[in-house]
Design goal:
It contains 3 helices and 2 strands; from the N terminus they run ββααα. By secondary structure, the chain is mostly helical. A hairpin with a 6-residue loop joins strand 1 and strand 2.
């Protein structure tokens, strides 16, 4: 019962049937406004899953159709659920390893100690001590 004695009545957005206690929200990508009854929700879920299975997976970088794609590593900060083709995965992995293991300015191999650049420097990757000191001296 509502505060003033009026009960809000919901109807299914697909079949128009009056809903009782159980209401289901449609998926955002379904393009349906309102709530659904149980049977319409199950039917729309099946349709969505079938459509997803029919669409081929595409590489997140080159947009080619991927047969046996690889998921990007979490360190790469890419969208979850994306796939990469093998050439793009190898290139992204090599770029990431270069960014982590080599100095961004001079290209020298980083040892045990490396330095993170300050955000105001707008440098991606890590720095060796000599380059970090040089950047700090420019401030």
């Amino acid at each position: 019962m509502h505060i003033f004695g009026k009960k809000q009545v919901f109807t299914c957005a697909v079949c128009g049937k009056e809903l009782g206690r159980h209401k289901y929200k449609p998926g955002e990508e379904w393009g349906i406004q309102g709530v659904l009854c149980g049977s319409c929700h199950v039917e729309k879920t099946k349709e969505f899953i079938i459509r997803q299975a029919e669409t081929p997976d595409r590489c997140a970088i080159c947009k080619e159709i991927v047969q046996d794609g690889e998921k990007p590593k979490w360190q790469w900060e890419m969208e979850s659920g994306t796939l990469l083709c093998n050439p793009c995965f190898q290139k992204k992995d090599a770029d990431y390893n270069k960014k982590i293991n080599f100095c961004s300015l001079c290209g020298g191999k980083l040892g045990m100690f490396y330095y993170h650049p300050k955000p105001t420097w707008h440098i991606q990757g890590n720095l060796c001590r000599k380059c970090w000191d040089g950047q700090k001296g420019k401030e």
